[in-house]
C-alpha cells in the first residue's frame, strides 16, 4: 500500500512540476507542453493521472504529519482544473467555455467536500474561524477580507461591463450526415454501395484485405511497410495507384493539408480553424471511403445545411480533378496515414 | 623591470620575423588568405554513417520526402513544379543554412543530433519557414530524421562527398561560444549604419523589406529568388522555430546562404560588427504595441492571429495621417493570407502572406487602413483586357507537371504585370444570418445572400461590387462608388499604405439590403483579398484571408462607471449581515 502510494505521490509531484513549468513558459510549447486539437481521451487520462498523483501526495503528506487541510485540498483541486484547461490545451479554449467547466468542477468539489457531515465540518472550519476572529491573525484576515472582497467584486464587474471584442464562439458539425448518393461528372454514386475502383490487387480485383496489408505502419513516423514501396517500378494494382494518388496530392492538396497530411500546409496559418488533420484518429479513420469521395468532390460549397458555418474553403474538386484522380487521392490518404477506411458493415 | 633587455629581445624577434616574412613572402601570403575568419574554427569531417542507417533512411525518404524532392533527389518530385521556392536539389550538395564557411558542406553527423553542431538535422527538425518544407519534429523520431539524412547525404548528394578529406573542409562558426552582444540602442544604431556601408540595403531594401534589386536575383539553378524581408522573421529559412533569436541572424550573416547571392560577411566584418548588424536586423522584425515579440502559434509557426478587428470611434473627420494619435491608438491586427486555391485559376504561390489592418469610424463612415509588404509596385501597363466585373477571367493555371522550365519558380519574373489591389468583402445581410452562419466565402452565396465588395487598385481606382456567387460576374454599383474615398494610397520601400473610407451604411431603413450596414457593437464578418501585380495576380488568382470580424467599438457607457460601486456597496452590506448573523448565533449558543 505504502509503496503504491509513494509511486502515486511521485507521479503527482512530477506532474505538478510539469504543469507549473508550462504555466511559467519554462517547458517549450513544441515538446510535451500542449494537448493539441482537443483530444478528449488523452485529456481525461491525464486528469485521471493527476488525481491518482494527488491522492498519493496527500497520503504521503499526512503520513509525514503535514496533512493538508480539507479546505485547501478543495480549493487547490479547483485551481488545478482551471489552470489545466487554460495552459495545457491548444488551441486555447474560449473563456466562456472554461467558465462553464469551472462551474461544473466547483460543484463537483463541493460535492466531494460535503460528502459526509464530518468532512463538511472540516471543510468549513477555516471559514468559521475567520468569521469568529478569535485569534489576532484571524482578526487581521477578517478585516482584510472585509475590504478586499468589495474592491475585487467591484473591479471584476467593471471589467465584465466594459465593452469588449472577443471572437464569437462558433460551433461546427465536423462530420455532417452524408446524402444517399452524389452525382459527380454526370454519374451518380450511391454512397452505400460504391467502392474505390483502385483498391485492387495485382489481378485488378477489389481487395481491401490485400491493400490493408500494404499501408504504412502505425506508430511513430508512419513509415511504409518493408517491401511495399509505392515508387517501385514493378508495382501492379494498389501500390501503383497509391503513387499516382500521392502525385495528385502533392500537386493539389498539400498546400493546406500539409506534407504529412496533418493540416499544417503552406497556407494553413491563414485558416480559422486550420485544415483537417488526417493523421488524427477522429477524421478519415472514422469515415467510409465514399464519404470522403463525396466531401472531396463537393468541397465546402457542397456542405449540407447542418454543415454550417460555410467557412470551409475546401474546393469542390470535381472542378479540378477527374473522378479517377479523386479516388486515387483518397487511396493515397489512407495509405499515408496508415488507417483503414471504415466499411458499411 | 629590465626594460633594455626587453627591448632588445623584441628587436631580435621582430627582425627574425621580418626575415622570415621576406624569405618566404609568397608562402605566407597564401596562408593569410586562407586565414580563418573571426569567430570560426577548423573542424573535422564527420565519419560516414553506417550502412544500416542509410538503408533505413531510404524507407523514410520514399515515404515522406520523395513527393517533393524526387526519386534522385534532384528537387523534381511531383509537387515541385507548383512550388516556389522549388524543393532543394540535393545532387550538388548545396545547402542554405549552415554553421560552416561559405561554400562548404553543412555540418552533419549521423550520430550527433546536437543543436548547433548538426545543421541538416536542425533543418529537418525545424523545417524551413517561408517554404513548403515543414518541421518534422513530432512526426519522425530523432533516429528516423538522422537515418533519412544519412541516406540523403550519401546517396543523393552526388557531386560532393561528405567524407572526402581531399576536397572538403569544415570551418565552423562557434556560435555557442560567442556571447551575443547586448541589443543596446548604440549597437542597433551602429548596425543600422553598417547595413548601408556593407551594401545590405542594395538587395534587402532601404527599410529591409526585401524590395531592393528584387527582380534580378537568381539562385545557382537559375530560378528567381527574393531577398529576405527583415520585418517577417518568422519567414526566415534559418529561424529554427525561434524567429526572434538574434543568433540565427548572426549565423546567416556570418556563413552566407549557399546557392544564393547572399554572401558570407565573415571576411570583411568583425564578430562585434556582426552582432551589431544582427541586433539591428532583429529589431526590425514586427513587434506588438509594447515592443514585445509577437507570440508565435505553435501549430503554424506564424504569429498568432486575433480574428477581431476593433474599430475605434472618432469625433468628426477621420484623419488621413497614419501618425495621427487616433490611428496610433487603435489596435493593429495581422491578417494571415493564403493563396486562393478553391476555384480556377488557383494561386499556388501567393507573394502577399499577411496584411496589417486598423480601423476607425465616425457617425458617417468607417475607414480601413491596410498596410502590407509587396516588393514591387505594380500598375498595369495599358488597359486590362477584361471588364472589372468579370470573375472568371481565363488566367491560365499552372500545369501540375511542366518540368523545370515551365514551373512556377521559372515564371517568377516574367508575368504580365497587372494592378496591385486590395478588396474588402462583407456580407450584405449579415443580420439575417444566424450567428455562426457566414455567406459563401468567395463572392457570396446567391442572390438572396450577396456580398458587398469594395476594391482598390494601384491605378488609383476604387470600385464597389455586389457578388452573388463564386461563378457569377460581379454587379458594378456605379452610384455607390461615388460614396467611397481613398484617403491615402502610397507605396514606399516595399510597403503599401492604403486607407479606404466607406459609408457606415443605412441605419434607418431596416429592409435596405444593397450594402453592408456596419452596426456598432456587432461582429461584421469581413474577408480581405489581395493581388500582387508582378505575380500575375488578377481576377481570382489572388491571396485570401479567412473570415475576420470588424467590430465598431461602442463608446463606454456611463453605467460602467456607476454600477461597480453600487455592487461593491452591496457586498459590504452583505458582509455586515453575515457577520452580525454569525455573532448573534454564537451569542445564542453561549447564552
Q: Which keywords apply here?
A:
heterodimer, A: about 350 residues, mainly alpha, 2 domains, two-stranded parallel ribbon, two-stranded antiparallel ribbon, 4 strands, about 50% helix, elongated, B: about 600 residues, alpha+beta, Cytochrome Bc1 Complex, Chain D, domain 2, Immunoglobulin-like, 4 domains, 14-stranded mixed β-sheet, 18 strands, globular, disordered N terminus
Greatest interface and its participating residue counts: A-B, 79 and 89 residues
Q: H/E order of the elements of chain A?
A: HHEHHEHHHEEHHHHH
Which bin fits the share of residues in helices of chain A?
40-55%
The major sheet of chain B is characterized as: 14 strands, mixed
DSSP summary, beta strand count of chain A: 4
Morphology call of chain A? elongated
What spatial form of chain B do the alpha-carbon principal axes imply? globular
Note the total helix count of chain B: 13
Residue share in β-strands of chain B: 15-25%
Quick synopsis:
The complex is a heterodimer of chains A (345) and B (591). Chain A has 345 residues and is mainly alpha-helical.
Characterise this structure:
The complex is a heterodimer of chains A (345) and B (591). Chain A has a two-stranded parallel ribbon with strand order 1-2. A two-stranded antiparallel sheet of chain A has the order 3-4. Chain A folds into 2 domains: 2-132, no CATH class; 181-337, no CATH class. In chain A, β3 and β4 form a beta hairpin. Chain A is elongated and about 90 Å long. Chain A has helices spanning 2-23, 29-33, 40-63, 70-87, 95-113, 117-132, 136-161, 208-214, 238-252, 254-257, 289-298, 323-337, and strands spanning 35-36, 89-90, 181-184, 187-190. Chain A is built from 12 helices and 4 strands, in the order ααβααβαααββααααα. Chain B folds into 4 domains: 51-173, Cytochrome Bc1 Complex, Chain D, domain 2; 185-284, Cytochrome Bc1 Complex, Chain D, domain 2; 305-399 and 415-552, Immunoglobulin-like (Sandwich), CATH 2.60.40.1190; 564-591. Chain B is α+β, with helices and mostly antiparallel strands. Chain B has helices spanning 3-23, 25-33, 51-69, 119-126, 142-156, 185-197, 201-204, 246-255, 271-284, 325-329, 408-411, 478-481, 559-590, and strands at 40-43, 170-173, 296-297, 302-303, 308-313, 333-336, 338-339, 354-361, 365-373, 421-427, 451-457, 462-467, 475-476, 485-492, 495-503, 523-531, 543-544, 548-552. In chain B, β8 (354-361) and β9 form a beta hairpin. In chain B, the strands form 3 sheets. In chain B, strands 5, 6, 7, 8, 9, 10, 11, 12, 13, 14, 15, 16, 17 and 18 form a 14-stranded mixed beta sheet that branches. Chain B is built from 13 helices and 18 strands. In chain B, α3 (51-69) packs across α5, α6 packs across α9 (271-284) and α8 packs across α9. At the A-B interface, α2, α6, α7, α9 and α10 of A face α3, β7 and α13 of B.
